[in-house]
Amino acid sequence: MVSIGTIIEGIILGLLSGSVYALMASGLSLIFGVMEIINIAQGALVILGAYLSYLLMQSYHIDLFVGLLLTMPIMFIIGVVIELLVIRPLKRERTMFSILVTYAVALIIEGVLILTFSNTPVTLHAWYITDSFLVGSFGGQPFYLTYAYVFTFALSVVLLAGLYWLLYRTEFGRSLRASMQNRTAAELIGINVERISAITFGIGVAVTAAGGMAFGTTRPFIPNDSYDLISRLLVIIVLGGMGSLRGALVGSLALLIIGDVTAVVWSPAWSSTVFYALLVVLLLFRPQGIFGQREGRKQ
Amino acid sequence: MKLLKALRLPARDMTDRAGLPKAAVIAIKVVGLLALLVIGVVFPPLISPDTTTTGVAVYALMFAAWATAWNIFSGYTGYIALGHAAFFGTGAYALGILCERWHIGPQLIGTGGGDVSILFLTIPVDYTPFLLVPLAGLIAGLVAVPVGWIALHTRRHTFIVITIAIFFIFQLLAENNVGNLTNGTKGLEFPYPSWVYPFYNFPFYYAMLVILVLALAVSWWVRHSKYGLGLLAIRDDEDRALGLGVRTGPYKLIAYVISAIFAGMLGGVWGYSLGSVFPQSAFDPLNDISLALMAFMGGLGTLSGPIIGALIIEWARLQFNSLSFIENSTSPGGYYLIIYGALFLVVILLLPEGIVPTLRKWWMGLLASREEQGMPADSLELSKQTAPVAVEQAESGEGVNR
């Protein structure tokens, strides 16, 4: 029996976890917006971020949120290294080749994770993952949530706000947006686009540390989860419009809310399918996504 | 951009310049192809007791055919489809379901059909599932019509992303046991043939070989037809092609469906050879990327490139399987992924155009330098003309999608 209460539960869950996906997807969208690069490794990097948090927690007993102070810079450096090593050498048809090389990077990351941590699922431990509180009672059914949902939601909001501030309130952000609008013109007025690109890639990857940690608080994970993640993230940015940060936000919330509502109303097995089906319908009418610009001929 | 055309089909002109008459070149090509075919046919009996090698050979042919079919769409139009395993899986499931429902082929419980007689040909029961392979391909092709129609609403990179998404939809549908067809994660059983090793691989090997030859023939026909020229025009500049009267929509969709039909047929044979398929194995994301790797390694949009790429990678896989440190490791998948990814990176970063175009360029350069001494007339002109185009293209980062 589906009551209005379960639907509200689905919406709340979707909103909370959607913010985490918004964080991961905005990294992906930022990279695409500035560099026209699709980073297929984003899913694997999220899982890597989750494992880094796991490592710090397991070996050094560092709290997951405190550990981010360490894992985010590490992921930033990994991102810059990936940019320098495999993205920068691409000279022609960068978008297409970037998909292939970052796919290769994803495979390597997955391989390293399998070798280091094996394929057994691991879980993150903290008091806020196990403890839960009563949100409310919908139709007589009490609805509990773990604290981790709220904490990661807050973290995502803070980081998204920070990203927004960086992009719209700083000199660096202005150069970055200039590179987004017109790479050549930005170069002409003296912006070091190469440097901006490397840093952008670093930032886009750094958010996966937080995203991965948040992902890890909700469920056990294995290296193989990266496939599910990257397909969801790609769908999110296509839905929202490639290269649009607003689109990444709206797309993630739509995916997670629709998915979670479907899960409680119908069956968890169908949650992604319903979303994918909606995406397909949307693309029929708006191939460029919600906030995207029309693709096609440039120049 | 007009010069690009000169760059694309240079081999024929240059061979003429080298002094070989066209007929001789064609004769050499035909003889070479026939020789390869003969090698392909006699390969399994020669290597017979070695089931590992014949097993890998089945996969090598499968991927060679699949990459060739993939290339008909992605190579010629420049639209990279990364979700092609969706049609492979569809074909595999289609064959399995048809065999189950129609009681075709030897079944475990004994409800299976008997031998099939067509005119005065009697086909033993173990071989009857092969009769359904074309049907499995057609089903995959039919499925590809709406899928391609939707996906091809988008361009270039969005298209790549959409194909990945569609691929995962298929995997999910199979996992969720839609319409009680796929049996969910429990997997689908196929008829179980009574062949024994080392003969077991042979029928599948020859089935794959037949599909490969078919795919190659279709690819050759497309490459040399007006239709194929339209596809290449889409790759070079889609809007201009549209403006010049190429019906880009149906052109792309037809190529997409053709490649899906072959993927479906291969999936059917593959499923029968394994005996059972699962959503995770029939819809394997690694296959998506393997195809792209093979085609890129050999040379995207060339006739022989995908086959060469597939053979090299499957050969590497065979060598890799026999490495001892893999067997001792607890998680062999890890090493496999790392080496696979690294190989992929090296190929794309060092040989972005692929083996065949690089060799061809190298060969042309050799001919040009030889002619410089002998007859410095217009051939030199051409080699000088073509070089700057490639350089200009590389330098400006200008691809077909601009």
List the helices and strands and how they pair.
The complex is a heterodimer of chains A (299) and B (402).
Chain A: H1 4-35, H2 42-60, H3 64-87, H4 94-117, H5 127-130, E1 132-138, E2 141-146, H6 147-169, H7 171-181, H8 183-188, H9 193-218, H10 226-240, H11 245-265, H12 271-285
Antiparallel strand pairs in A: 1-2
Helix pairs in contact in A: 1-6, 1-9, 1-10, 1-11, 2-3, 2-4, 2-9, 2-10, 3-9, 6-7, 6-9, 7-9, 10-11, 11-12
Chain B: H1 2-8, H2 11-17, H3 22-47, H4 51-77, H5 85-102, E1 116-118, E2 121-123, H6 128-131, H7 133-151, H8 156-175, E3 188-189, H9 201-223, H10 226-236, H11 238-243, H12 248-274, E4 276-277, H13 279-282, H14 285-298, H15 305-321, H16 324-328, H17 332-350, H18 355-374, H19 378-396
Helix pairs in contact in B: 1-19, 3-9, 4-9, 4-12, 4-14, 4-15, 5-7, 5-8, 5-12, 7-12, 9-12, 10-12, 14-15
In brief, what are we looking at here?
With 299 residues, chain A is mainly alpha-helical.
Shape of chain B: globular
Order of helices and strands of chain B: HHHHHEEHHHEHHHHEHHHHHHH
| Poorly predicted residue ranges of chain A | 295-299
Radius of gyration of chain B: 23 Å
Number of helices of chain A: 12
Helix content range of chain A: over 70%
Report on the biggest sheet of chain B. Answer: 2 strands, antiparallel
Strand order of the largest sheet of chain A: 1-2
